[in-house]
Amino acid sequence: MEDNRVQTQIALYMTNKKLCEFNDKLKPAPVEFYAHIHAQGEKVGDNSRQRSCIGVVLQDYSKGTGASTVRVTANLSPDFFVYALSRVSLGVELFDFYEEKIFGNPDQQGKSMVTKVSIKRASVGKDGKPRNYPWCVLVENGRAIKESTQTGGIHMKKGSYQMERSVFVNINDYDFFRLMQQTVRYINAWELTMAPKRIRDAMKLMEPQQN
């Protein structure tokens, strides 16, 4: 039987040992916050808080497939891809992006899920020679204890982080540009598809207020 499931994959880079994939996890902002276009964790009637993002998947099957494959996941804001594409288009020599998140309900040890993402470009290696694959995308998955900050935010308790899996993928300039270009192209198409109806719905809700 054919597999006719709709695929959310936007862009893919794959070698005989590694894989880097970006997937559609975009969500529109609630109509009450229509001008945000993308959901940014706004609180709505049922107290749910959604965020619009692009899913990142890295896989390392250098030691085998199936159970031997190491797979890590993370989420990035759509704004990251627009920013990264602008840097690539300018031909920057150096690029350094890092982000970590802790989320979800604590497990029996009181630890929640953690994702760490590092994306860097270095045109020259430590040996001083030009690198053919100057981009490095690294994702870590692990667990840590949540701790509240004085400003009401949440971060990892110092010393509580435990890494579970880590994968990095080295990418050349052309393929990294292609990944960013394809993802930004999709984000733009998604916005042009989803935003008009949300804006029209919001205009209807605002009519009584304006009158």
List keywords for this structure.
single chain; four-stranded antiparallel β-sheet; 24% helix; alpha+beta; 211 residues; 36% strand
The Cα radius of gyration reads 20 Å
- Strands of the widest sheet, in order across it, are 1-2-3-4
How far from one another are the termini?
Answer: 57 Å
| Uncertain spans | none
Largest sheet: 4 strands, antiparallel
Tally of separate helices:
2
Mean pLDDT: 92
Taken from the alpha-carbon principal axes, the silhouette is globular
How many DSSP E strands?
Answer: 10
Beta-strand portion reads 35-45%
What sequence of helices (H) and strands (E) makes up the elements?
Answer: EEEEHEEEEEEH
